[in-house]
Amino acid sequence: xxxEEYEAAVEAILFAxxxxxxxxxxxxxxxxxxxxxxxxLRNLSDRYKSDASGLQIIELxxxxxxxxxxxxxxxxxxxxxxxxKHALTDVVLETLSIVAYKQPVTRAEIEKIRGVSCEHAINxxxxxxxxxxxxxxxxxxxxxxxxxxEEFLRCFGxxxxxxxxxxxxxxxxxxxxxxxxxxxxxxxx
Length: 189
Prior knowledge:
Blueprint: H1 3-17, E1 21-22, H2 23-30, H3 34-48, E2 55-60, E3 63-68, H4 73-81, H5 90-102, E4 105-106, H6 107-114, H7 119-127, E5 131-136, E6 144-148, H8 150-156, H9 169-188
Antiparallel strand pairs: 1-3, 2-3, 4-6, 5-6
Helix pairs in contact: 1-3, 2-3, 5-7
């Protein structure tokens, strides 16, 4: 193999492993001596020292690791601070719709509407910061009341829940009928 091929192999090893890799293990993978491998690592490390790269190879007590240069941390912080996009399953989206239109609402009320347990969906929505606890119902057991968050408004592009689309009475009746039929099917199973 040519030196460039060995350097490419070392790059791939360090990138894929993420953590530091001992010189002896790299040498064994390359089927070279530790001295030859150390020379390849020095050459590769020197190449990464140029300003044209955001990466570097560092030595940590006889092991080597590929990592980001300190000068690039600002960009990493910016990307880490960007909101993550979450995929909402039908179950989670249905639960969110109930909270958005019926808030403040308890888990029991959501489950009554859906006809099934919704603990997982509620937990997921809280994790995504789309709903939050907004108080407690003044009733036995003091159940938690849920409502939407500012993040919900941002994600759905509305200024307030009053801006959510309204359903016409015919659609509401249709949805109620479908829900009742679904509940009846589950009871017959």
